[in-house]
Amino acid sequence: MASIPSQSIKKLIKKYTGVNITNDGASALGKILEREAKTISRYAVGRARKHGRLKITKDDIKGYVIDGE
User: Whose CB among 26, 32, 45, 66 lies 3.0–4.6 Å from 9's, allowing a Cys bridge?
Assistant: First the structure.
């Protein structure tokens, strides 16, 4: 089970699409989002360290998308 609450995912899906999602669908999406968050976090930590920082910034996160990771 993903640590992102299914209810939060259901609310987001409904808000942005106007469509409901099943519990299983929300759980599956939560697992995918969590896996992606881990990947992005690893990248951002590496980038922050490369720049001699102990804190991740918005630019570190954006860099993941810009660098095409």
Answer: 26
User: Can you tell me which residue has the tokens 């942005």?
Assistant: 16
pTM score of the predicted model = 0.78
pLDDT per residue as tens digits for the range 10-67: 999 999 999 999 999 999 999 999 999 999 999 999 999 999 999 999 999 999 988 7
| Cα 48 to Cα 15: distance, rounded to the nearest angstrom | 33
pLDDT digit string, tens, across residues 16-29: 999 999 999 999 99
The first and second tokens of residue 56, run together, are 């991740």
